[in-house]
Every structure is written in structure tokens, then in C-alpha cells.
Amino acid sequence: MPRVRTLLVALSVALFLGTPSASAGGPTSVLITSPHSTESASLYYADEEYGRLESLLGQAARGARERPPGLAVDTGRQINVTWLIHDVRPWRVDRVYPGGKGPVWIHTTTDVDSMRGTWHKADRPGALRLLLKSLHVLGKPSDDGYAGIPPADRPGARSPARTRAPAAAGQPDADTAWGWSWVIPSAAAGALAGAAATLAYQRRTASA
Question: In this predicted model, what pLDDT tens digit does every residue of 80-116 receive, in sequence order?
């Protein structure tokens, strides 16, 4: 019975540790890309620039639905900022229009399926431009570049549909729990192996 209890305790611990907690979720990294210059950068949540970028872009819920009048989203430079949960799942996208001077307009969405969101001006446009420049995403236009995909403005309108490659055999689909399903069995197997090794050691010690 003590051996059985040991195995059950080990299995319970493995299942507990292997189960993802919703409270532990949150953005962990961010990808910054420039279709105009074909440059890119990335930051992790521990980087100083990560917090600065988050602060300079502002809150996701603020702003107006209508596109700012006179803003050239089809031809001007666009910077895409994609925030990722667990480094893989996008949860927020900021499309930034830095321009050359004046206000910096930002379109923010947390609905990554429809990409509908709101517009607002950066509170500190100069500081935001300097940060993007330091991340090397404000370079010269590239021959392979393009203006970027502008946000949809009309109510009910959708941005161009995203294509999704089929998942390879044996791999989790892109819209599933991102591979968490294999964590629990792996942790449980490891715990059982450890418990078995402990029992074997105790048996050898007792017989010595």
C-alpha cells in the first residue's frame, strides 16, 4: 500500500504541474515587422524595450472606430506589432503609421479573426519613432517591400482573409491548446519513472 500511495501522489503532482493555469497566461513576446523595408525585430517580456513599447502604444480599448481623415494607410509606411501569448498565439495587433513628422496613428485590435479595432494617436510620437528606429524597423524602402495591409474601416468589414496551412500529421492544429496536451502525459510518465526508481532504490537498501 505505501508503494501504491507513492505512485498515486507522484501521478497527482505531475497532473497538477502539467495543467496550464489561465491565471498564468499573458503576453510573453512581441514581433515587430516593417513590410515597407522588410525589416523585423522581436522583444521578450523581460527586455526593457518591451515595456517601453507597450507603454508608448497605449491601451487596447481606447480610440475611435473610424479611420483618421487624411491618413494614407495604402501608401504610407506601416509597422505591424504582434503581441504573442506563450510566444505562439497572437492576442493583440497594433498597426502603426509613424509618418515622417506630426502625429503617429495606431490601429489596435484584440480580435485577431476579424481584425476590427480602434484608432488613436500616440501620446508621445517622438519617443515611439525613436524606439522603432532603435529596433531597426524604419529603414529605407525595399524592392521586395509593400505598404502593408490596411485595417478595414466599414462596420462588419473584414481584413483580407488569413490563409492557414494544414497541420502536419502528429502535430497540434494551430487553433488548439498549442501542444499542452502532450505536457500532462509526459510529466506523468516522468513522475512514474521517478517513483519506480525510488522504490527500486528502497528495495535494494532493505535487502543490503
Answer: 999 999 999 999 999 999 988 889 999 999 999 999 9
For the chain, give the secondary structure using H, E and C. Answer: CHHHHHHHHHHHHHHHHHCCCHHHCCEEEEEEEECCCCEEEEEECCCHHHHHHHHHHCCCCCCECCCCCCCCCCCCCCEEEEEEECCCEEEEEEEEECCCCCCCEEEEECCCCCCCCEEEECCCHHHHHHHHHHCCCCCCCCCCCCCCCCCCCCCCCCCCCCCCCCCCCCCCCCCCCCCHHHHHHHHHHHHHHHHHHHHHHHHHHHHC
Please enumerate in sequence order all residues whose Cβ is within 8 A of that of 82, keeping only pairs 6 or more positions apart, or say none: 30, 31, 32, 33, 90, 92, 93
